[in-house]
Amino acid sequence: MSILLRAEATMVAILAIAGYALFGSSWWLFMVLLLVPDISMLGYLKSPKIGAICYNAAHLYVVPIILFALGWWSGSKLALSIGLIWIFHIAIDRALGYGLKFFSAFQDTHLGRIGKNS
Q1: Within a domain: residue 118?
Q2: For residue 26, what is the DSSP state?
Q3: Is residue 7 part of a domain?
Q4: Per-residue pLDDT of the chain (118 residues; tens, 9 = 90+)
Q5: What is the 3-class SS of 33-78, one letter each residue?
Q6: How far apart are alpha carbons 81 and 78 in whole angstroms?
C-alpha cells in the first residue's frame, strides 16, 4: 500500500510543479518558500505529541488546496503560487516516505516507519 501512496504523491508533485511552471510563477519565490512547512517540526522540541500535531497541520493538503482555489477564484497569482508550492512540498515529502506523524515518534508515519531502524 505504501508504494501506491508514494506513487500517487509523485504524480501530485509532478502536477503541482507543472502547474507552477504553467502559471509563470517566480522560481525565486519557489526556492524561498519550499521548506517553510518544515518549520512545523519545531513542535518536536516540546514533545512528540505537540510535534506530530504541528507537523500534520502543516502537511495536510486541505489548506494549500483552499489557498490555491482562492487564488484561482480571486485572480491572486501569489495565493495560487503559494498553494502550489505547499502542495508540491507535501507531495515530495510523501513520495519520499515522510508521511503524517503518529504521536509516538517522528519516525512513525502513516506510510510506515522511517529512518535507520525501519
Answers
A1: no
A2: -
A3: yes
A4: 689 999 999 999 999 999 999 999 999 999 999 999 999 999 999 999 999 999 999 999 999 999 999 999 999 999 999 999 999 999 999 999 898 999 998 898 888 888 665 5
A5: HCCHHHHHHHHHHCCHHHHHHHHHHHCCCHHHHHHHHHHHHHCCHH
A6: 5
Q: Residue 43 in contact with residue 50, Cβ under 8 Å?
A: yes
Q: What is the residue range of 59's domain? A: 2-113
| CA gap 58, 100 in Å, rounded | 10
CB 98 within 8 A of CB 114: yes
Q: How many domains does the chain divide into?
A: 1
Burial of 91 (0-12, 13-18, 19+ CB in 10 A): buried
Residue with cell 505529541: 49
Packing angle, helices 77-95 and 62-74, rounded to 10: 150
